[in-house]
Amino acid sequence: MRKALVSSSTHVTASSGNVFEDLGFPPDKAMALLFKAKILTRILEEVRRKKYRQGKLVELLDEHQPVVSNLLQGKISQMSIEKLLTYADRLGLKLDIQRAPRQRTRQHAARPTKRPLALGKIAGGKSGGKIGGKRA
C-alpha cells in the first residue's frame, strides 16, 4: 500500500477575480477569455436544460457538426466572442451587461478626496460663472 504524499508547506495566492489574469495572461486577453468562458457556460447550461442533441444544435446554430462538437467540448479557442454571442442569441439567451462594483483598496479609501474649486468662488466669492466681473 502506498502512502499519500503530504506537503508541509502551503502557498495560497489571492485571486484577482479573473483566473486567466492569475495565470499570467495580459489584462485585455484575460478579460476576453473570461467573457468567452462565461458565454460558453451559459450556452452549455441552456443545451443541458433543453436536452439538445448535436443534430438539433447543428440546425439551430446553423453550423457544421465538427464546430458544434468542439463547442460542446469547450474547445472555443478559435471562436470569436461575436460567434459565441450569435450562438447564445440563436438559443434564446440574452446578453446582460452590468457594471462591476468598484474595488476599493485601503490606501485609496484612506486618502482624502480632492475636489476642484469653482472658479466663481475664487474670483469674486459668488458663484454664477463670473470671473473678474465678466461673465465666463
Descriptive account of the structure:
A hairpin with a 2-residue loop joins strand 1 and strand 2 (134-135). This protein has 136 residues and is mostly helical. The N and C termini lie far apart (87 Å). 47% of the residues lie in helices and 3% in strands. The chain has helices spanning 19-22, 27-50, 54-61, 65-72, 81-90, 106-110, 119-123, and strands at residues 130-131, 134-135. It has a domain at 19-90: 434 Repressor (Amino-terminal Domain), CATH 1.10.260.40. The protein is extended. Strands 1-2 form a two-stranded antiparallel ribbon. Helix 2 runs parallel beside helix 5 (81-90) and helix 3 packs across helix 4.
In short:
This protein is mainly α. It is built from seven helices and two strands.
